[in-house]
Design brief:
By secondary structure, this protein is of the alpha+beta class. The protein has one domain: 6 Propeller (Neuraminidase), CATH 2.120.10.30. 15% of the residues lie in helices and 37% in strands. Strands 1-21-20-19-18 form a 5-stranded mixed β-sheet, with no helix packed on it. Strand 23 and strand 24 form a beta hairpin. The protein is globular, with a radius of gyration of 25 Å.
Length: 404
C-alpha cells in the first residue's frame, strides 16, 4: 500500500512560474519531442524490409539453381599442410589461407604456390597474424600484427613491400579487418571482459582509432568473436552484422545506420537482456535460442543479386534475393539423404561466386548419403571428389555462381 507524500515532499510538474513561462516550457518540450522523432524517422527512412524468414525452411540446396559450380582441392605438400582455416580470401584468381600464424597462397586450380611473410621480430617480420586483408586498389595483401602494432604489406605474388608501425593497442582485440576506403580499415573486434567495442575504424595513415559501436555483452577472461565474417562489400556499399540482431547496418565515419531488416516472428533480445550476459560464450547462442529468441547472424556474404546470412546457434542459413527483397531459410540435413547440391561452408565471395569450405570428414559424410539414384553433373562431381579425398588431405574450396 502506497502512502501519500505530504505536500512539502511533492514535486509539481511546474514550479510557481507565471502562465507565459509555463507555455514556453511546454513549447520547448514539444519541439524537443518533434526533433527527436524526426531524427528517428530519418534513421529508418531508407530501411528495407526482407520477408520470407518465417516460411518453412528447405533442405540445403533445395530449389537453388546454380549456373556454375567448381571444386578446388587444395594441394597437400610438406609446406602447405593446413591445421585450420582462420580466414579464406580470394582475389585475382588466387586463394589466400590464414592458418594460425601462417599465410599461404594457392592458385585457382588448388596448386600450392608460396607462403607469404616471415615470422619473427625483425622489421619485415610478424610475431603473430591477428588477421589479414586485401587492398583491391593496390593489389596487395596485408598482415595485421596486433602484438607488434604493425601492418606488413605484400604484393599478391608474395613479394614483401613495406611495414607500417602504429600506436600501441591500435589493433587491440581485432578479429577481422576490411579495407573500407583507401585510407580506412574497418575492424570487427573480439568481446573481452569489459572491452565490448564491436567495430572500430582505423585511419591507415595516422593510426587514429575510432570506435563505432559498443555492445552490451561482456565475457569472463575469454576473447569471444561476435561472428565469423561480419562485414560484406558490394558496389561500394558496406553491410555489417551486430550480435543477436535481425538488421544489417552500414557505417559512417562515426556510427552505424540500419539499412535492412529481416522480418521475423522470433523475439529479438533487448539491450537490458544483452547487458545481463556477463559471460558471453558459444553457449550463449544456444541458451538464447532455447528461450525463443533470435540468436543473430554470424556471417554475411554478398554477390550482385544475393546475400547469404549464416545463423548463429542454428545449423541453417538465410538466402536473400536482393531483387525481390525476399529470402528463404535452408537447414543442413546432416543425417538424412542428400538429394540436392548443397552450399557448403560459405564464408566469402569472389565476384559473383559464393565461396566456401568444410573439413574433409564433413564432405565425405555428405557424399555417402547421396542416393545412387540421384544424379546430375554437379552432384556427380561432388561425389567423385568426396570419395577420392583423404581426411588428412587439405580441404576443398567450393565456388558457386547462383542463377540470376
Amino acid at each position: 500500500m502506497y502512502e501519500t507524500l505530504p505536500p512539502s515532499l511533492c514535486f509539481p510538474l511546474f514550479p510557481k512560474f507565471d502562465y507565459r513561462m509555463k507555455i514556453r516550457i511546454i513549447l520547448l518540450i514539444f519541439i524537443g519531442l518533434c526533433l527527436s522523432c524526426s531524427e528517428g524517422d530519418r534513421l529508418y527512412e531508407n530501411l528495407k524490409v526482407v520477408i520470407g524468414y518465417d516460411e518453412e525452411p528447405l533442405v540445403n540446396g533445395q530449389n537453388i539453381e546454380v549456373d556454375s559450380f567448381r571444386i578446388v582441392p587444395l594441394e597437400t605438400t610438406s609446406g602447405s599442410v593446413l591445421s585450420r582455416i582462420d580466414r579464406l580470401l580470394v582475389s585475382d584468381s588466387l586463394i589466400f589461407i590464414h592458418d594460425n600464424d601462417r599465410l599461404l597462397c594457392f592458385d585457382y586450380s588448388g596448386k600450392f604456390l608460396y607462403p607469404i611473410g616471415v615470422k619473427g621480430r625483425g622489421a619485415g617480420e610478424y610475431l603473430r597474424i591477428s588477421t589479414i586483408f586485401i587492398n583491391p586498389f593496390l593489389h596487395t595483401i596485408n598482415i595485421v600484427d596486433e602484438v607488434l602494432d604493425k601492418v606488413l604489406t605484400y604484393r599478391l605474388d608474395g613479394t614483401y613491400l613495406y611495414m607500417k608501425k602504429y600506436p600501441s593497442r591500435s589493433f587491440y582485440m581485432a578479429h577481422t579487418a576490411y579495407l573500407a576506403d583507401n585510407d580506412k580499415l574497418l575492424c570487427n573486434n573480439y568481446i573481452y571482459n569489459n572491452f565490448n567495442q564491436t567495430y572500430s575504424m582505423i585511419n591507415i595513415e595516422t593510426g587514429i582509432r575510432q570506435f563505432l559501436c559498443r555492445s552490451s555483452l561482456h565475457t569472463k577472461n575469454t576473447a569471444m568473436p561476435t561472428g565469423q565474417e561480419t562485414v560484406a562489400f558490394n558496389n561500394d556499399t558496406i553491410k555489417m552484422l551486430l550480435p543477436f540482431d535481425n538488421k544489417l547496418y552500414t557505417c559512417t565515419d562515426s556510427s552505424l545506420i540500419p539499412i535492412i531488416s529481416i522480418r521475423m516472428d522470433k523475439k529479438i533480445l533487448s539491450e537490458k537482456r544483452l547487458n545481463a550476459e556477463t559471460d558471453f560464450s558459444i553457449m550463449t547462442y544456444f541458451n538464447v535460442s532455447e528461450e525463443g529468441y533470435f540468436a543473430g547472424f554470424k556471417s554475411i556474404c554478398e554477390t550482385r543479386d544475393y546475400i547469404l546470412l549464416n545463423e548463429a546457434g542454428e545449423n541453417q542459413y538465410f538466402l536473400v534475393d536482393k531483387r525481390k527483397n525476399a529470402g528463404r531459410r535452408y537447414f543442413y540435413n546432416d543425417a538424412g539423404e542428400q538429394k540436392y547440391l548443397p552450399l557448403l561452408g560459405i564464408c566469402t565471395t569472389d565476384g559473383d561466386y559464393l565461396v566456401g569450405t568444410v573439413p574433409n570428414f564433413v564432405l565425405k559424410n555428405f557424399v555417402k548419403q547421396i542416393p545412387e539414384s540421384v544424379s546430375g553433373q554437379e552432384l556427380n562431381k561432388l561425389r567423385e571428389v568426396g570419395f577420392a579425398i583423404q581426411e588428412e588431405d587439405n580441404p576443398c574450396i567450393f565456388f558457386y555462381k547462383l542463377r540470376s
